[in-house]
Structure formats: C-alpha cells, structure tokens
Amino acid sequence: MDRPIYPPVVLPFLLFLLLLGFLFFFIFASAVNAVFTALGLPPWTAYALFILSLAGSFINIPIKTIEVEEVRYKVDTFLGRLYPVRIVEPASRKTTIAINLGGAIIPIAISSYVLITKAYGWPSFLLASILMIMICYSFARVVPGVGIVMPNFIPPISACFIALFASLLFGCLELAPFVAYFSGVLGTLAGADLLNLKKISKLGARTVSIGGAGTFDGIFITGIFSVLLTTLLV
C-alpha cells in the first residue's frame, strides 16, 4: 500500500496555525489582565482571576430544576395530502437552570468589588445599568436549540458609550471604565438572560447555563471589551 504524500508546505502551515493560536491567546490573556488591573485589582489577583475564569468556564453550578411542558405533534396524510396538525400527547421534561463559574459568578464578583470601591459614583452606575438592561432586553432573541442570542458587538459598544454618557453627566469621567464594566455585566446578565428565563420552554434545552457557552454567553466577554473600548476613548 502506497504511503500518502503530503505537500512540503503542510507542516510549516500547521506550525504557523499553532503559533497563531498561541499569539491570539497571549493577546487575549494580556487584554484580560490589563482590564482587571485597570479596575483596581492587584496584578497577581488579575492573573489568578483570568486562570480561574478559564477553568471556571467548564463549571456550571445548578440552581434550580423546573418541569417544562412539551407538546408533541404529528401530521396526518391521506393520498399524499396533508391534513391539519393535531396534538398527540402532552409531555413534560426537566430543565436545569445553572450559573457558570467563569462566565457569570466571577464577573458578578468583580462588579460587586467595583461598585464597593467606587461607591461615590453610584448615580452613574445606576443610570448606565438601567439603560444597558433596556438595550440588551430589546435586542435579545430566543432561538430554539441555541439559546438567547444577541449580536456580539451590541453589548460592549453600548456599555462603552453609555458609560461615557453617564460619567460625563454626573461629572466623573474617570469612572467611565468602571461604569462600563459594571453596566456591561449587569446589563447582559439581567437584560439578556434573567428577563428571558420565562421563555425557557421555547429553548428546547435540558440545561440553561447563565454565562456559560451554549444557552447563554457573553457576560465575561462584554465586561472585558467594554472596558478596553472605554479606556481607548477616555
């Protein structure tokens, strides 16, 4: 049997892809650590939180299990013609609501730290959060089998400009990155996730993970990129 012959460029191309992957990971890790440091966290804490966020993205902590009614249908046919759909039997299945450690719990903890350390800017935090919740709720859509989805660029860009507006309005522009992170996390969590939990029956998922990959995501990423954008503009 003849051995397969590979073009001489295959190995260099694979090495290039591997190097490119490491490069993107290094850039992303540096950006995350820069954001955590900009939020007032010590460098060693920033690195620890980044590693914990990566590891925690695989950990979903169950909160509640609910029963969702599921109606099964079938279509009758006769001589090639379709007849009205009729209900066969109602059924129920269990859906577990969970919260992701790296994608939700850690961002919430950091947001709490930001709010406590910058409590004097609470009007900016409050206004920006309300506006972000309204925006995220209006753009979030239920996609069966996928989850609650929203264009990826809307939360971080909205959080950035809303934070700048709220900070300027209350005369505390230096707080804009902090307001962007807090409102970005809270807005995505409440506006896109929590306010849509009532639509769980339309998702067709056995597990709903808030902040986790799959049904819900974007809380962690929104917090990071909103701060980066705000820092570049301030």
Gist?
With about 230 residues, the protein is α+β, with helices and mostly antiparallel strands. It is built from seven helices and five strands.
How many domains is the backbone divided into? Answer: 1
Counted by DSSP, the helix tally is 7
Mean pLDDT: 80
Give the biggest beta sheet: 3 strands, mixed
Return Rg in Å. Answer: 23 Å
Structural class, by secondary structure, is: alpha+beta
Fraction of residues in H or I helices: 40-55%
Q: Give the beta-strand count.
A: 5
Percentage of residues in DSSP E strands? 15-25%
Q: Outline the low-pLDDT stretches.
A: none
Distance between the termini: 65 Å
The dominant shape is: globular
Order of helices and strands: HHEEHHEEHHEH
- Going across the biggest sheet, name each strand in turn: 1-2-5
Question: What does the model show?
Answer:
- With 234 residues, the chain is an alpha+beta fold.
- The protein has one domain (32-68, 94-233).
- It contains seven helices and five strands, in the order ααββααββααβα.
- The strands form two sheets. The protein has a three-stranded mixed β-sheet.
- A hairpin with a 3-residue loop joins strand 3 and strand 4 (147-149).
- Helix 3 crosses helix 7 and helix 5 (154-169) packs across helix 6 (176-193).
- The relative contact order is 0.15.
- The model has no long low-confidence stretch (mean pLDDT 80).
